[in-house]
Specification:
This protein has 155 residues and is mainly beta. It is built from 2 helices and 10 strands.
């Protein structure tokens, strides 16, 4: 099993759990160039509005496979420290999801019921928005070297 050197080098946030069976597949030739740009591993921080300001959580998005109408993705999120509005610390977690492709964006429903949307920007970043009982936003940057498929990563 090959492991990605970026894991050992500390490129991904250490508090974000990921499954050990992530495999990145190259976009098929028929995939639109902009849509193909989602492929790979992305990292950043979610920022959530609270009554006392912004709360942040580390985030990793792995786009394993992209098709014209859907994408297989893994979303991992770090710990949310206890904030005054919370009744408990929100633990780190990951989830594999089949996201829909809607007008060039990736969209899925989080377990919380929030609608999460990822949009690829012209500067090569991804903007993520989460709209539900809490509103959040993230800017993700692609992890260099994380799109040479297929690749197994351990974290």
């Amino acid at each position: 099993r090959k492991t990605a050197p970026m894991i050992r080098a500390g490129v991904l946030p250490p508090d974000v759990p990921l499954p050990i069976d992530i495999v990145l597949h190259p976009p098929e030739q028929k995939i639109d160039g902009k849509l193909a740009g989602f492929s790979g591993i992305w990292t950043g921080e979610w920022k959530f509005a609270t009554f006392r300001g912004l709360a942040t959580r580390n985030h990793v998005l792995a786009v394993e496979r992209i098709h014209p109408k859907e994408a297989s993705i893994v979303v991992g999120i770090g710990e949310l420290p206890l904030i005054p509005e919370a009744t408990r610390v929100v633990q780190p977690s990951w989830r594999r999801v089949l996201a829909k492709v809607v007008d060039g964006t990736l969209v899925f429903n989080a377990l919380s019921g929030a609608t999460v949307t990822y949009t690829l920007n012209s500067d090569g970043t991804i903007t993520g928005t989460s709209v539900g009982s809490v509103v959040g936003r993230t800017t993700l940057r692609k992890v260099a070297g994380a799109s040479e498929p297929p690749m197994d990563i351990d974290h």
